[in-house]
Amino acid sequence: MSDETPAGLLKAALAADAARPFVTFYGETEAERVELSFATFDNWVAKTANLLVDELAADPGDRVVLLLPLHWQTAVWLVACWSVGLVACPARYTDERGADVPGTDVDIVAAGPDALDAALELGARETVALSLHPLGAPLPEVPPGVIDYATEVRGQGDRFLPYAPVDPAAPALRLGGPELSGADLCAQARAAAKRWDLTASERVLSAVGFDTAFGVLASLLAPLAVGASVVLSRDGDMPEDLLVRRVTTERVTAVAGIPATGLGCRSLPTPSEVE
User: If you write DSSP's letter for every residue of 76-136 in order, what string do you get?
Assistant: First the structure.
């Protein structure tokens, strides 16, 4: 696999130290904590990529809209899409505005429970529902024609090999502007890691979603490029005492989307300095 694709970055990190923590996720409560090593994350990526190919008939170049919040499963879906050669389209979703989807045809959409109505309105060939439950439970009720991710993904294979090598120059990410290739994403990830002085020993606490270039870099690809760890937090406005405790407990060295004042760690640049 080419190291000029995001999936190649994951394989390189696996080869360096598969057992190291990669993604730690905090949900709405302190008790909702999930930690995945590089090996476990790769296993979820493989299962999801197999689901995309074998169950959803995804072909390289297909566009996958992700109506998902900042979550470890969103990171899995991004890398799974790039493992297959799909174009990931992370989209902002709010109850008031519905789905803010980049202008493109939609082949597959993956959505959380709060975005299912908006997902179905997109008219995709396949719609996948994610419960986002901390223990991976399925949804209690799934609309007709919608696939329950939690139910289907666990039966997929633990290893994934694409039918043909993914082209690093092929489109991989669309965020409303020009599409970026896998090679573009790798170059930007390495450049951001260098600019932010990230090393493999870093632990980056991020509250920035994947629907911006800054979020894709700070919350996933820049740490992955150097084999560092990320701590994803859905609650970027947490009370100061909780933030200090989380930074201390998780041995955080840098933050993104969270004020760093008084935390004893540095802050990654704002989105305007990156995009």
Answer: HHHHHHHHHT-EEEE-EEETTTEEE--SS--SEEEE-GGGHHHHHHTT-SEEEE----TT-
